[in-house]
């Protein structure tokens, strides 16, 4: 998945930036807990496409509350997929800023 595009997307870049500080206003704590369970880190092509579609839907909304409402309306599987993708983008940004962590 092209996470560089995610991180540079103006609609989500600020959320990725504050995510690097450990603050995730878009997600409820229980959602983050659910995706923290060990799973496979790779994404299939179908999952990549699904995550892109969710991002496009999210971009249509300007307020954080509306974005959160959209995520709440998703199935748990789709929401977890989006959160994992978002966290990968945050991880990539952190590693770009601090290459010594690699």
Describe the overall structure.
This protein has helices at 3-8, 10-19, 29-35, 45-59, 64-73, 76-97. By secondary structure, the protein is mainly alpha-helical. The chain has one domain (3-101). Helix 4 (45-59) crosses helix 6 (76-97). It starts with a helix and ends in a 5-residue tail after the last helix. 19% of the residues are buried. The model has no long low-confidence stretch (mean pLDDT 85).
**Spatial extent as radius of gyration:** 13 Å
Q: Total domains, how many?
A: 1
The ordered string of helix (H) and strand (E) elements is: HHHHHH
Largest sheet: none
Distance between the termini: 19 Å
Please give a handful of descriptors for the protein shown.
mainly alpha, single chain, 102 residues, 6 helices
Q: What's this, in brief?
A:
With 102 residues, the protein is mainly alpha-helical. The chain is 69% helix and 0% strand.
């Amino acid at each position: 998945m092209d996470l560089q595009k995610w991180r540079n997307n103006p609609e989500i870049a600020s959320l990725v930036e504050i995510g690097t500080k450990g603050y995730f206003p878009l997600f409820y704590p229980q959602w983050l807990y659910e995706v923290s369970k060990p799973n496979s880190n790779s994404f299939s092509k179908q999952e990549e496409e699904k995550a892109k579609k969710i991002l496009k839907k999210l971009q249509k909304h300007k307020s954080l509350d509306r974005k959160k409402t959209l995520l709440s309306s998703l199935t748990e599987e789709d929401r977890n997929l989006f959160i994992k993708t978002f966290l990968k983008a945050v991880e990539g940004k952190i590693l770009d800023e601090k290459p010594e962590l690699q």
